[in-house]
Write a structure and sequence with these properties.
The chain is built from 16 helices and 13 strands. The protein is globular, with a radius of gyration of 22 Å. α7 packs parallel to α8. It binds magnesium ion.
Length: 426
């Protein structure tokens, strides 16, 4: 009995055959995968794969999207941050892609991105929802073709993706330098070799005005003491990132970048709000502390000027918000033209973390991905997904080899956390 041809081995052969063909006919344009899978021995026909429905659920700060098909496969994706109130937007986008093949991921992304009257000048909620849908399309395409997402993105540069641990001290009221030192020590004990701390504190008693974000000398001293304590606790070889959440002005951004120079940060993140690239350039040029931004920028368009004028040293797009996995790869490749590292922001579930990891594996200039300490402290995060194996080991995620993203959502586990009043996967 002859060995049946697997989808994967067929695609390898098809890729070789295509490479040997001198010219691809125009009529075959865009039909690559569909033609390939047409010829695979199978019970059902992936080439007839069509999207039938798009459903969603809202948990904590995340939108989970599930795209169903006329065959027994589906894809899941996640959007974050700019997602409250977007149920009808998900439904609207779902109607646009119903009946279409999910395998043309870039095309469906463009169809939705350009579907407004002005052909694509979108950001905010629109792009956050598009990010969730685009990610679900990659998951679905991977399952249909029996390939992990990183492979669909062109293959990988690395098997493991380094992560830094967000220490979540923001959950504590007025954390002391000792709190910073203890959180740093604990994260290192857990195996992390890179950490992040937040410096913005709206209720700092040395802050005298709710709207003016010029830090007083008391606030500056508090910031220095906190990060100095963390540095002293973990020594010189642990990477430390510091986030100001865009809550200060340019004079304070310059002061903090200068003040923290002796502590050798991996980066100072969003010292000022996202809109003004020239103000970022001012801060970057005033200090040897690397300046990082991007979690409030959308699409590759949002990163162009930052990179063109050298406003930042590192870009940190949030792939569950900035446009999804393909757009994340485009942002990384754009940054690579300027020799700027790519360090995605990540505040999603483990589905979002693994989805991001596939992109991180697929680009040369990947530096590090965000990891959340809440994965270890809040049971909800384990309950809302299915995944066999270790999530993280010694500051690295092993990129899944399963078809698609490799992490499934658990709707049953999600139910009790669903935001009341919004239809839940209906
Ligand atoms: Mg941030």
């Amino acid at each position: 009995m002859s060995k049946p041809t697997s989808r994967r081995s067929f695609i390898s052969k098809a890729a070789i055959a295509t490479a040997l063909t001198p010219m691809v006919s125009l009529s075959a344009f865009g039909k690559g995968y569909e033609t390939a899978i047409d010829n695979i021995p199978k019970a059902s026909s992936p080439a007839d794969l069509k999207i039938t429905e798009v459903k969603c659920g809202y948990i904590r700060g995340s939108l989970f999207v599930k795209i169903y098909t006329n065959q027994d496969i589906w894809g899941c994706g996640e959007g974050v941050d700019a997602i409250p109130g977007t149920y009808h937007l998900v439904k609207n986008f779902g109607e646009r892609i119903k009946g279409k093949s999910p395998l043309n991921v870039h095309r469906l992304f463009e169809d939705i991105r350009r579907s407004g009257f002005f052909q694509g000048a979108q950001s905010g909620m629109y792009i956050a929802v598009l990010s969730a849908i685009e990610t679900a399309l990659w998951d679905l395409a991977g399952k249909a073709l029996n390939l992990p997402v990183y492979q669909l993105l062109g293959g990988k540069f690395r098997d493991k993706v380094r992560v830094y641990c967000d220490t979540a001290l923001y959950q504590r009221n007025l954390p002391t330098p000792k709190d910073f030192a203890d959180a740093a020590t604990n994260a290192v004990k857990m195996g992390f070799n890179a950490l992040k701390f937040d410096l913005d504190q709206a209720n700092d008693p040395n802050k005298y005005d709710a709207y003016n974000w010029t830090a007083s000398h008391g606030e500056l001293k508090r910031m220095y003491d906190q990060i100095a304590a963390a540095r002293a606790a973990v020594g010189p070889n642990i990477d430390i990132c510091v986030d100001m959440h865009g809550r200060y002005d340019a004079v304070t951004g310059q002061a903090v970048a200068k003040l923290l120079e002796p502590l050798n940060l991996m980066w100072l993140e969003e010292p000022i709000p996202a809109e003004n690239a020239e103000a970022y350039k001012l801060i970057s040029e005033s200090s040897s502390t690397p300046i990082c931004a991007g979690e409030n920028h959308y699409l590759a368009h949002g990163f162009r000027r930052l990179l063109e004028i050298g406003a930042v040293d590192i870009v940190m797009p949030d792939l569950q918000k900035a446009g999804g996995l393909g757009e994340g790869q485009r942002i990384a490749n754009l940054a690579n033209l300027y020799y700027v590292p790519f360090a995605p922001h990540m505040v999603a579930s483990f589905l979002g973390a693994m989805a991001s990891a596939h992109v991180c594996a697929s680009v040369p200039n990947f530096l590090i991905l965000e990891w959340q300490s809440y994965f270890h402290t809040q049971p909800m995060f384990k309950e809302i997904v299915h995944y066999e194996g270790e999530w993280v080991q010694n500051s690295f995620i092993t990129v899944s080899e399963k078809p698609g993203i490799g992490v499934e959502i658990n709707e049953e586990g999600m139910k009790k956390y669903a935001i009341p009043g919004i239809p839940f996967f209906e």
